[in-house]
């Protein structure tokens, strides 16, 4: 009876049968663990030298991983062996903490240290990517919204499967990195505790070296021996985040104040009444296209040839430079900066301004009541609520232009087709009012492969004529991995876009057509260069000499190619300069 009672009390809720089914499994698992541990100990006993070598190798690898994470730079050019010949203060501090703590707190601290190194490494890798493509570091307060856009770009460029694999791979990489770094820090913490006396002497020596090198400013391979790279990187990111949050509040107040916000409709743009005005952005059309030795010869010839052809058709141009609010990507920041007169250099500013009532240059035309306003945006493939903020009566997106041909990587259709569709559906139709058009051309969007070629304007049809051209073009994957080819193909894409636009103007422009076209930003840093400016070309083209006479005071260069010493303005100054040049009277609205 006592035996039965004990069995009943120890049985699981499912009864003795359930216990009988699980207890042997638990015993087997425990036995297997003990067996594996015993086997490992036996192997160490039989092979002491191999075991000692393995321990030392594992410890050395753990040390290398931790030191590598602490000294990892955040730019690709700095990723050189010399960057890792430093004494990191964070390593010395970590050793001191590990030696001072008892076992359980020490293990907890080691795990946290490993997770901290994971965050640091991930941030440095993001910095590398952002510096390589956008010419700036990663901003934790602003840039998470760009990651889905990056995935969409990879999907459009290299395919959905590659984009999914890249996203999954990134997550797996971070998890694997965390596991490896945590294992390394735990391993080092336990090793330090087992050799406390020697570790203490080593920490004291390393600390002395660090203080001495720091005090004397000693350097090696172009950098200080005494490093606090990790702490400095985390401080910089923290400060960047704080500054971004403060900036958001200040910008919201700035966006409410507008020098033309209260201008009556009759006092806006009186000197352009009766003109068809077209604002066109050419994707990634930057100063490098005109001045870089690789791209400049071809682009320069195209601009010179186009200037001559336009002159034969009766058009004349003036050109200058604008400094864009963005670099390498995020084109919408350049568009909104030029049109709003506000410096919109991040996504939070963009959301703030597009949620408000700040007057855009395009909306100023609609406010007069004297123009119909349309947007032509072949790159838009989903709902675009900013349409109202820009002041557009109608938007033509990728699905409204009747294109049935192939995509050219990210670009949904060639610029030549988009412009011809704009002519057929909008510009060429009879209207009661002149037209203000906002056109975004996309064929020069990276990765610049494959690139369309010009075809006869009468052969465009529904775009199927581009099938053979797209199939014969370069593969995006081949160009993306080759910097020299990327630069060459980028230059060709700019030549194609400029040719498409200027030939369209020759073919369909009238005495009342006024074209303003400009770049939204420079191409990625890998193409434009590490120290490239943020300048983009801007040109104003018209037949009516009175239109060009209004900007004589701007001192822009004659023709489509701005001179190297032509005026350089910030892009956010363009709206007010344009409004004033064409007779608008400022009436500020209060912030």
Task: Describe this entry's structure for a reader.
The chain is elongated. It has two domains: 47-241, no CATH class; 274-581, Alkaline Phosphatase, subunit A (3-Layer(aba) Sandwich), CATH 3.40.720. Helix 2 (16-46) packs across helix 3, helix 11 packs parallel to helix 19 and helix 16 runs parallel beside helix 19 (483-508). By secondary structure, the protein is an alpha/beta fold. The strands form three sheets. Strands 5, 6, 7, 8, 9, 10, 11, 12 and 13 form a nine-stranded mixed β-sheet that branches. Strands 1-4 form a two-stranded parallel ribbon. Helix 15 links the parallel strand 7 and strand 8. It has 22 helices and 13 strands. InterPro entries: Alkaline_phosphatase_core_sf. Residues 1-25 are annotated as: Disordered. Residues 1-11 have a biased composition (Polar residues).
CATH topology call of the largest domain: Alkaline Phosphatase, subunit A
Q: Give the mean pLDDT.
A: 85
The overall number of domains is: 2
CATH homologous superfamily (4th level) name of the largest domain: Alkaline Phosphatase, subunit A
Q: Which stretches of 5+ consecutive residues score pLDDT under 50?
A: 1-21
Name the structural class. alpha/beta
Oligomer: single chain
Instruction: Characterize the biggest β-sheet.
Output: 9 strands, mixed
Q: Measure the end-to-end span.
A: 89 Å
């Amino acid at each position: 009876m006592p035996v039965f009672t004990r069995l009943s009390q120890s049985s699981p809720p499912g009864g003795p049968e359930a216990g009988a089914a699980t207890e042997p499994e638990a015993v087997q698992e425990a036995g297997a663990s003990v067996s594996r541990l015993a086997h490992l100990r036996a192997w160490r006993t039989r092979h002491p030298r191999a075991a000692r070598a393995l321990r030392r190798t594992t410890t050395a690898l753990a040390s290398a991983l931790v030191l590598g994470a602490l000294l990892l730079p955040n730019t690709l050019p700095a990723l050189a062996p010399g960057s890792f010949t430093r004494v990191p203060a964070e390593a010395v501090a970590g050793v001191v903490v590990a030696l001072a703590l008892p076992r359980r707190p020490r293990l907890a601290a080691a795990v946290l240290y490993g997770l901290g190194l994971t965050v640091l490494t991930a941030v440095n890798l993001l910095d590398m990517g952002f510096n390589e493509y956008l010419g700036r570091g990663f901003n934790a307060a602003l840039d998470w919204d760009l990651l889905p856009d990056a995935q969409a770009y990879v999907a459009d460029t290299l395919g959905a499967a590659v984009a999914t694999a890249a996203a999954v791979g990134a997550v797996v990489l971070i998890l694997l990195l965390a596991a490896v770094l945590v294992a390394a820090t735990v391993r080092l913490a336990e090793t330090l505790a087992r050799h406390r006396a020697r570790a203490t002497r080593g920490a004291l020596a390393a600390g002395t070296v660090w203080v001495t090198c720091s005090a004397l400013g000693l350097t090696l391979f172009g950098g200080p021996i005494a490093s606090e790279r990790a702490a400095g990187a985390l401080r910089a990111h923290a400060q960047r985040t704080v500054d971004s949050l403060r900036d958001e509040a200040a910008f919201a107040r700035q966006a409410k104040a507008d020098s033309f916000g209260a201008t009556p409709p009759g006092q806006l743009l009186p000197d352009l009444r009766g003109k068809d005005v077209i604002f066109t952005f050419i994707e990634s059309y930057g100063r490098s296209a005109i001045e870089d030795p690789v791209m400049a010869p071809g682009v320069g010839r195209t601009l010179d040839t186009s200037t001559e052809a336009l002159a034969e058709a009766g058009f004349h141009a003036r050109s200058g430079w604008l400094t864009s609010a963005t670099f390498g990507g995020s084109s919408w920041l350049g568009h909104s900066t030029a049109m709003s007169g506000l410096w919109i250099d991040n996504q939070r500013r963009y959301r703030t301004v597009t949620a408000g009532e700040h007057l855009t240059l395009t909306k100023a035309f609609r406010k007069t009541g004297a123009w119909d306003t349309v947007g032509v945006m072949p790159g838009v493939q989903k709902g675009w609520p900013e349409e109202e903020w820009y002041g557009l009566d109608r938007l033509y997106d990728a699905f409204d232009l009747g294109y049935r041909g192939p995509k050219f990587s990210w670009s949904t259709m060639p610029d030549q087709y988009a412009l011809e569709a704009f002519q057929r559906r909008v510009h060429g139709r009879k209207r009661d009012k002149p037209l203000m058009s906002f056109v975004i051309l996309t064929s020069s969007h990276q990765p610049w492969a494959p690139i369309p070629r010009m075809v006869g304007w009468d052969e465009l049809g529904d775009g199927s004529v581009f099938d053979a051209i797209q199939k014969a073009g370069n593969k995006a994957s081949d160009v993306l991995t080759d910097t020299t080819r990327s630069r060459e193909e980028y230059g060709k894409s700019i030549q194609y876009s400029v040719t498409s636009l200027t030939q369209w103007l020759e073919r369909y422009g009238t005495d009342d057509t006024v074209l303003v076209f400009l770049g939204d930003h420079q191409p990625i840093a890998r193409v434009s260069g590490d120290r490239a400016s943020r300048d983009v070309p801007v040109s104003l083209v018209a037949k009516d000499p009175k239109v060009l006479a209004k900007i004589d005071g701007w001192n822009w260069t004659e023709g489509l190619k701005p001179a190297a010493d032509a005026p350089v303005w910030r892009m956010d100054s363009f709206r007010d300069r344009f409004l004033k040049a064409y007779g608008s009277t400022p009436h500020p609205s209060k912030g």
